[in-house]
Amino acid sequence: MTKKMWKQHDLKKHYDIVIIGGGAHGLATAYYLSKMGVRDVAVLEAKYIGYGGSGRNTAILRSNYRTEEGIRFYDQSIQLYENLSQELDFNLMFSQQGHFTLGHTEASVSGLTTRAENNKALGVDSYMLDPIEIKKMLPEIDISDHPRYPVLAALYHPPGGIIRHDAVVWGYARGAEQGGVEIHNLTTVGEIRTEKNKIKGVQTNRGFVSCNKLISVVAGWSSDVCAMAGIELPFVTHPLQALVTESYKPWLHHVVVSSNLHIYLSQTDRGELVCGGGIDGYPHYGMRSTLAFLETYAAHVLELFPVLHNVKVQRQWAGLCDMTPDYSPIISPIDEIEGFYVNGGWGTYGFKASPASGYNSAQMLAQGKVPANIAPFSYNRFRENRLVGEKAAASVSN
Fold it and tell me: Which CATH class name applies to 95-160+236-323?
């Protein structure tokens, strides 16, 4: 008989910490809390673990960001990913195959060059390539002047790559369960209760649960959860669409992103091409794919790789991204409500942040103080005009 990776539990009336959201960030937070000796923890997931952004993303990993704060944070995440399969004793199909960000205009090349130098200054492996060097590593790419936006240069980031996103979710869930955390699927939060500006607990479809600390980790739905607590934060939700093709003989051995065309693609170990573009141009909560996305993506990707003209699309999907004005996350205690924390605003780059997000959030919850790596991501930065502007590094966010 196959042993279940995590169990079904009766929902207790009280936990020390309640985590709303059973995606990679929430489960990573739970896992690292258990590693720190905090085990009276419940993860509440409205659907099933990995239903949201963790199961709908394209699983690209990188740390070649623009700001010092972003580079340090995402590099910590890459370092945690490098040892995660061994730590969780679970094959995550982690592949550091290298990551290209193509530049098609002088302005974009200038921005990529700045990113390369910032990365080097902080010890992150990133450097610029000219078209001839790009062609040697990507033989199928068109570097001629025929496309509307010819390739002028690229930022190459060797540590970047891909990972099996659902394996990360399963691995963290199993690890958290083994550490004493309770995972509750199909448990919807309908109300957050406070008393004298202090968190009291949550009303769920399975009854009321009190807690000492509550953290919202719900990609795409952060503004809704915050509203339950009477807190308004600058989140705006946009869908991000993607597609996957039928399987083909392996030919693309790197992740390729275009900073001007707002598209990207990689090839899985099964031979499928995983492809994505920019966020939908207007905010909404729909998770259906559109013909407009497919047409736009096809037009742009064929300029880069004409060899793909007969490739067949197998399926399309969309996931929700909650965006902040400076394209950086909010990971922070909320001063107005003691015991209430928010982890959200990851935009299009949340999955790659999962280990560092969970590790630092767990420290914040367990120790009652904000670790240095996430201190810049306080929600107060918008009031204090100290933004962490990462739009230049979010190549598919438009």
Answer: alpha beta
